Structure formats: C-alpha cells, structure tokens
C-alpha cells in the first residue's frame, strides 16, 4: 500500500511540474491573467494533494514497521 501512495505522490508531483511549466509559458507569452491565476490555483491544489500522499505514505510505512 505504501508503494501505491508513493506512485500517486510522484504522479501528482509530475502534474505540478506540468501546470507550473504551462503557467510560465503563459506568462512569457503575455497570456491572460485569468488563465495564469487558474493555473496557479491548480498548482497549489496539486501541491497540497502531493503533500497528503507523501504524509500518508510515511504514516503507512511507519505503521507497518
């Protein structure tokens, strides 16, 4: 089960990087401020989800040992 949490955390972290890069590209191209704001909100939410999965993986690994 800890492996599942690790994989989910990695997937969410990859999603964070993708959203971050999309936000940077949007900013460099002078895109919509509304789009930049929505991408920043999505990044923060994904980071929170990643932290939850990391904590769950650590908690589960500690409980098993």
Question: How would you describe this structure in keywords?
Answer:
65 residues; mainly alpha; 91% helix; 0% strand
Characterization of the model:
- With 65 residues, the protein is an all-alpha fold.
- It is built from 2 helices and no strands.
- α1 runs antiparallel to α2.
- The radius of gyration is 15 Å and the shape is elongated.
- The chain starts with a helix and ends with a helix.
- The model has no long low-confidence stretch (mean pLDDT 90).
Number of helices: 2
How far from one another are the termini? 13 Å
- Sheet having the most strands: none
Range of helix content: over 70%
Mean pLDDT: 90
Strand content: under 5%
Shape: elongated
Secondary structure category: mainly alpha
**Order of helices and strands, N to C?**
HH
Q: What integer value in Å does the Rg equal?
A: 15 Å
Low-confidence stretches: none
| Strand elements, count | 0
Describe the structure in brief:
This protein is mainly α. The chain contains two helices and no strands. It is elongated, with a radius of gyration of 15 Å.
Fold blueprint:
Layout: H1 2-28, H2 33-64
């Amino acid at each position: 089960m800890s492996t599942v949490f690790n994989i989910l955390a990695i997937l969410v972290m990859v999603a964070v990087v993708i959203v971050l890069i999309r936000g940077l590209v949007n900013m460099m191209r002078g895109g919509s401020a509304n789009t930049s704001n929505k991408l920043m909100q999505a990044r923060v939410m994904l980071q929170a989800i990643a932290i939850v999965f990391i904590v769950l993986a650590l908690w589960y690994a500690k409980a098993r040992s």
